[in-house]
């Protein structure tokens, strides 16, 4: 698994999202995801939205994913 594949999955699963994903070892990753759909949602709900884009990869090919989830307004601040 590579960071670019994860970025593509997140961005295709969350229309309008912009993701930056890093991970050197192929199983542990960090992602910053900016998406207008996060507005009004608590962090746990935002993380669930991102995790849903990755489906069965979570806990298998992706051992750990540290998330930072922001609305476009939060990202601009």
Automatic annotation (TrEMBL):
Pfam family, one: BolA
Family: Belongs to the BolA/IbaG family.
Protein name in UniProt: BolA/IbaG family iron-sulfur metabolism protein
Annotated InterPro entries: BolA, BolA-like_sf, BolA/IbaG_stress_morph_reg
Signal peptide: none
Transmembrane annotation, as ranges: none
Source superkingdom: Bacteria
Organism: Thermomonas fusca
GO biological process, one term: DNA-templated transcription
GO CC aspect terms: cytosol
């Amino acid at each position: 698994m590579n960071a670019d594949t994860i970025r593509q999955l997140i961005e295709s699963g969350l229309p309008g999202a912009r993701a930056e994903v890093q991970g050197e070892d192929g199983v542990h990753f960090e992602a910053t995801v900016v998406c207008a759909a996060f507005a009004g949602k608590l962090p746990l709900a935002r993380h669930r939205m991102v995790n849903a884009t990755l489906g069965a990869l979570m806990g298998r090919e992706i051992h750990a994913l540290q998330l930072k989830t922001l609305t476009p307004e939060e990202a601009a601040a």
